[in-house]
């Protein structure tokens, strides 16, 4: 154990005890070129023989997977956002987007993924509507149904996005919005909450610096599921064990790239040595800023963040929480020494109370 | 009440996953604490020559231990692999540390309980040897179990705190005290039912005081993340737990001349302790189900860091950057 073994910048494979470890490998997922084709989801399932996660229609734009689960190790998120001050449709008959209303209905859909806890429905309709942006959601108790009642009237929500071109059918108004897509995956953290808390040693650090579950060891205690600050790892129903992305550990061992990166047609998913990916990502975000995309930002790239940097990091076009990512995750184990210290004081208090209770009595 | 904050999320769905654990784990929090409290009670009875208290404490410890093992194993996704917990001893995993603690505690408490049946063994042969050896070994084991008991009662707080569950993680400074007090109160409850006396009453008052003081901090000192502890079902459970604990402590003192009132106070303390555990458990689950509790505190942290430019900011708790 080094001084940064629980928190702070560190190279995880040597820190875990590997001598002559190969360079740390990872993913750079550039969402600015993602086209939402879901080839990554399919390739992952095919290569890793991941079971069916149910045929669900969620109405979360084109996202019918819902999120990462024990049976979905790649997940393509879709966000529809009404225009934010865009002048693209100036002077044209545009109307408000139906996105906030549609989101409320979509968020209530139960997603039977065959995993636990899987993808629970939203508890807060207001938060669901705000997926499209908080500025489009008026305060007030108007969020009962879809389509009508707030921010003007949008089209009736039918459970899936419209297939006709905007503005073609009258009187449906043309609406100005942008689409965000992101292929989400396990972050293979430098300080992995799941790995830290695993009591059986089923989760381990590979020589490539990635984090993998050994299915012959896992006894399904579920601690990793609560240990992950990103909500990635999940348990398979019936099977009882925890499953997540392995960064195709078997393929890496044979010098191949992971199945999702191989299948990605736009190089939105880039696989390689983490140092090189970080450089490439910084150049890309600078280019986007120069082109006027001020919202472009890297997520999980900095080794100074709360998990010591992600092995799989992202270029995002909006705030992380819009994509369902925690904005500033911290590995729970950071505070473990202090937690034990507090527990020690509490234990001493308890022992002292017991001694005092019996004080003054003699056998 | 904390005002509703504006925040964004992905279709309002949770960001961190709600715990996959069922109420089995809430029950274990109670039975584990009860085993620890009873072991302390038994050791006290042992030290002061109170045979009834010692026997009741040891019996309650064994019963609570058996229930603990049952519920812990039942809650696994692969119960037949429970022994994989003993493959490694891993300091970064409170569950691994707790498994070892529980194993050693169980061994010691088992030997102490076995010593209670020594007088029933025959006087000759191998069993006769056991009859002579068990009482001193059992006494040592009883003290050994008592030494491990405070750890057993408080590690569960670290186990809950060392997660991404927002309302468990945030309250880590006070949760061990809440659990320690709750364990003391439940142990005292056993004493008040089986052999009411001054030690059990003192333990009841001390345990209730520690539990209520720490519980008050958990419910009020952590801003938005304290909210799940006083809202909805967890809030109701914790209010009821508080009422039962107060009633139990008061009953223990006021009813010292009445066996019936003492026993009722004991039952009240036990029920209060159990409800405290259920309340804390459910509050954490609620905080994980609503992305608000994940996003808002993290967003506030980011914004305050952006407002004070410079270093990425040393950790406020560790001082490390």
UniProtKB/TrEMBL annotation, chain A:
InterPro entries: 4Fe4S_Fe-S-bd, 4Fe4S_Fe_S_CS, FDH_Electron_Transfer_Unit
Gene3D superfamilies named in the record: 3.30.70.20
Top-level taxon: Bacteria
Pfam hit, one: Fer4_11
Transmembrane segments: 343-360
Keyword terms, alphabetized: 4Fe-4S, Iron, Iron-sulfur, Membrane, Metal-binding, Repeat, Transmembrane, Transmembrane helix
Domain named 4Fe-4S ferredoxin-type: residues: 25-55, 177-208, 209-238
Subcellular location: Cell envelope
PANTHER family: FORMATE DEHYDROGENASE, NITRATE-INDUCIBLE, IRON-SULFUR SUBUNIT (PTHR43545:SF6)
Listed name of the protein: 4Fe-4S dicluster domain-containing protein
Biological source species: Paractinoplanes ovalisporus
Automatic annotation (TrEMBL), chain B:
Spans annotated as Disordered: 292-321
Record's bilayer topology term: Multi-pass membrane protein
Localisation per UniProt entry: Cell membrane
Domain of life of the source: Bacteria
Keyword set includes Lipid metabolism: no
Chief site of localization: membrane
Basic and acidic residues bias locations: 292-303
Transmembrane segments: 25-44, 56-73, 100-121, 133-155, 175-195
Keywords tagged on the record: Cell membrane, Membrane, Transmembrane, Transmembrane helix
Pfam families, sorted: NrfD
Similarity remark: Belongs to the NrfD family.
Name this polypeptide is given: Polysulfide reductase NrfD
